[in-house]
Amino acid sequence: MKEIIVEIKNEQGLHVRPSGQIVNIAKKYNVTLEIEKVGENEIVDGKNVFGIMTLGVAKGEKLKLRAISENVENMEEEGKLLEELRRMIEIDKFFEE
């Protein structure tokens, strides 16, 4: 299991399109992705658009992303998934700006 904290930097926060982008990336990997809004206790499935949207995350808020693999062979994918998500969220800003 690996986890990172990312800050939402796009103006609109996590609406439908960014949530869908997270899901599309997560589904490329054979690991479980859990997403939690920092400061709250609700954890959602990172492969579920509606779950992600229920977090109500706005610009400037932070998410904890947790990648969990079921076996040793997939542990390398945890880091790859988290790095790809970090780049899209914090650097590319969901390609919205």
Strand count, sense and closure of the main sheet? 4 strands, antiparallel
Question: Fraction of residues in helices?
Answer: 25-40%
Strand order of the largest sheet: 1-4-2-3
Please provide the count of β strands: 4
Strand content: 15-25%
- For the terminal residues, how far apart are their CA atoms? 32 Å
Choose one word for the global shape.
Answer: globular
Number of helical segments with 4 or more residues: 3
Oligomeric form: single chain
How are the SSEs placed, and which strands pair?
Elements: E1 2-7, H1 16-26, E2 32-37, E3 43-45, H2 49-53, E4 62-68, H3 75-91
Antiparallel strand pairs: 1-4, 2-3, 2-4
Name some characteristics of this structure.
alpha+beta, single chain, globular, 34% helix, 4-stranded antiparallel sheet, 4 strands, 97 residues
